[in-house]
């Protein structure tokens, strides 16, 4: 009985800690990006792989150029809800706070994946299990995704998830984002 109570208190304590961290993160975040319409079709994922430990990712002029390109995309999306580009920020850091801080310097994203270093879910999916994967940062992985959203409220079906391009280095990443 004591063991179950201890486990229960541990779970309650962990939930309280997670809630406190989430509340802190939410307070510091800017206004959320405009929501994209959930509909069947094809869109493009721009997956930005970064690391707080990466000297190239720390370059102020390169970071500023990428952030400016991301800000332009966010601005264009406010007028076009069918924009079709999903911004995903990935921090390949073991220290989640350092990774989140790095991503915030680059701007606003639709999705964030932080933690577990090169073993996080985005790195496994888009670097290690892709035969063309290159374990290098900063990197932008461009992926086309085709989804089917049934009208009956059933599960969304991902019909295709295919890498299209990889860009290494902040200058190339900034150029690709500006040309989108």
Structure, explained:
The chain is an alpha/beta fold and 180 residues long. The protein folds into two domains: 30 residues; 146 residues, Glutaredoxin (3-Layer(aba) Sandwich). The chain is built from five helices and five strands; from the N terminus they run H-E-H-E-H-E-H-E-E-H. A five-stranded mixed sheet has the order 3-2-1-4-5. Strand 1, helix 2 and strand 2 form a beta-alpha-beta unit. Helix 2 runs parallel beside helix 5.
pLDDT averaged residue by residue: 83
CATH class of the largest domain: Alpha Beta
Order of helix and strand elements from N to C terminus:
HEHEHEHEEH
Specify the helix fraction band: 40-55%
C-alpha termini separation: 60 Å
Strand content: 15-25%
Coarse shape: globular
Structurally, the number of domains stands at 2
Q: Treating each run of at least 4 consecutive H or I residues as one helix, how many helices?
A: 5
Overall CATH architecture of the largest domain: 3-Layer(aba) Sandwich
Rg estimate, integer Å: 18 Å
- The helix-and-strand class reads alpha/beta
Oligomer: single chain
Could you tell me the CATH topology label of the largest domain. Answer: Glutaredoxin
Structure, briefly:
This protein is 42% helix and 24% strand. It has 180 residues and is α/β, with parallel strands linked by helices.
